[in-house]
């Protein structure tokens, strides 16, 4: 199998810089260090102890350390940049990398606002530089299998999509609430499953244990096709849950992000014919099938896809436009809850009017 980190016939490693060594940044560090054909040549983080630990200890030469990500982008000899720095810095760092012609993988959310996300998108298009957004769940084998089954018509018409993302409170998250930190994942996945973005949202939020932001979200999304989406996102559940369910004309598809399992339960309209069984199972419960999948770490698959789009000059699998759409939906959810009203999502630039109209 071809190495996604090298052009065909080339012995040159792809030289990568990593900005940010928080929780997600350390995961990127681990995966990048372990990839043949990739060399992590520079790392940036303002915490000296964290930076020192990250710039040594790999299998190859030590990486250069920078306290400032902008300095890393300007001074290091790079082929690509991974941005895992705080969201508020994404705009300036992405624009600096794009100006130097460096492909960028930006951890979600793409930016602090939709306007900033569109600015990144416009700059990338003008320069012809790939920008991939780190919606890592798109690379989960269970999600990909569910998408394959939908594409094969197992459900025919989609009626409803429900996503649950819950777990204990992460003390490291202080600058945002669950809507921006977590619900951007689910807004993206629900739109991807539906094949369209929502045009109306309504939500309720609550703040129970977080010092300054919401830690519980229930959201409803309405899609143009008539399909309905539901978000259940919180930092209050003592056990980690990551589940996706799609109900349609042909039955139900269920996926677990954690175990990477997928199930299909068929719809049955005829009664079971056994009254005692019907009382326990329901009047018309269908047969179920479990799909066995090869388990893959989604982050590894995401980084390999990023390398492939650079080496093969192909379209990013999760574009900056996708990132803007997910961010717009998450912000609309937050706005709905804050103002106790339904929020309508307007068409984004690039959908019904030219993106370049913003320039």
Describe the protein.
The protein has 359 residues and is of the alpha/beta class. It folds into two domains: 14-136 and 299-319, NAD(P)-binding Rossmann-like Domain (Rossmann fold, 3-Layer(aba) Sandwich), CATH 3.40.50.720; 138-295 and 330-344, Dihydrodipicolinate Reductase, domain 2 (2-Layer Sandwich). Helices cover 33% and strands 25% of the residues. It has helices spanning 23-33, 48-54, 69-75, 90-99, 114-127, 141-151, 178-194, 275-281, 298-311, 320-339; strands at 14-19, 38-44, 64-66, 80-83, 104-107, 131-134, 158-166, 200-206, 216-222, 228-234, 241-248, 251-256, 261-267, 285-291, 343-344. α3 (69-75) runs parallel beside α4 and α5 packs antiparallel against α10.
Structural class: alpha/beta
Gyration radius, rounded = 22 Å
CATH architecture annotation of the largest domain? 2-Layer Sandwich
Major beta-sheet overview: 9 strands, mixed
Number of helices: 10
CATH topology of the largest domain: Dihydrodipicolinate Reductase, domain 2
Total beta strand runs: 15
What low-confidence regions span 5 or more consecutive residues with pLDDT below 50? 270-274, 352-359
Helix content: 25-40%
CATH class of the largest domain: Alpha Beta
Strand fraction: 15-25%
Secondary-structure element sequence?
A: EHEHEHEHEHEHEHEEEEEEHEHHE
- The termini sit apart by 42 Å
Could you name the CATH homologous superfamily of the largest domain?
Dihydrodipicolinate Reductase, domain 2
For the residues shown, what is the average pLDDT?
A: 89
What spatial order of strands do you see in the largest sheet? 14-13-12-11-7-10-9-8-15
How many independent structural domains? 2
């Amino acid at each position: 199998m071809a190495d996604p980190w090298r052009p065909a016939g080339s012995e040159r490693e792809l030289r990568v810089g990593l900005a940010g060594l928080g929780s997600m940044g350390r995961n990127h560090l681990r995966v990048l260090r372990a990839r043949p054909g990739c060399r992590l040549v520079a790392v940036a983080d303002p915490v000296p102890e964290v930076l020192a630990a990250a710039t040594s200890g790999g299998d190859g030469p030590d990486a250069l350390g920078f306290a400032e990500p902008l300095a890393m982008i300007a001074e290091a000899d790079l082929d690509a940049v991974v941005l895992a720095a705080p969201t508020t810095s994404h705009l300036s760092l992405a624009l600096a990398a794009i100006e130097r012609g460096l492909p960028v993988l930006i951890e979600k959310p793409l930016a602090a606002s939709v306007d900033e996300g569109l600015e990144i998108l416009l700059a990338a298009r003008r320069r012809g530089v790939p920008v991939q957004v780190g919606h890592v769940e798109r690379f989960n084998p269970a999600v990909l299998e569910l998408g394959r089954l939908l594409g094969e018509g197992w459900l025919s018409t989609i009626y409803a999509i429900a996503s649950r993302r819950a777990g204990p409170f992460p003390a490291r998250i202080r600058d945002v609430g669950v809507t921006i930190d977590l619900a951007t994942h689910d807004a993206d996945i629900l739109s991807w499953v539906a094949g369209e973005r929502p045009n109306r949202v309504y939500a309720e939020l609550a703040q129970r244990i977080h010092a300054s932001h919401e830690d519980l979200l229930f959201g409803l999304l309405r899609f143009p096709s008539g399909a309905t989406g539901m978000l259940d996102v919180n930092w209050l559940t003592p056990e980690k849950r990551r589940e996706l369910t799609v109900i349609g004309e042909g039955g139900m598809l269920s996926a677990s992000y954690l175990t990477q399992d997928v199930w299909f339960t068929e719809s049955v309209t005829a009664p079971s014919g056994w009254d005692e069984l019907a009382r326990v199972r329901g009047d018309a419960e269908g047969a179920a099938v479990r799909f066995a999948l090869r388990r893959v770490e989604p982050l590894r698959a995401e980084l390999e896809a990023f390398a492939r789009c650079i080496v093969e000059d192909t379209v990013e699998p999760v574009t900056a436009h996708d990132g803007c759409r997910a961010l717009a939906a998450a912000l609309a959810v937050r706005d709905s809850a804050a103002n106790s009203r339904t929020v309508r999502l307007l068409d984004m630039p690039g959908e019904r009017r030219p993106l370049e109209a913003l320039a």
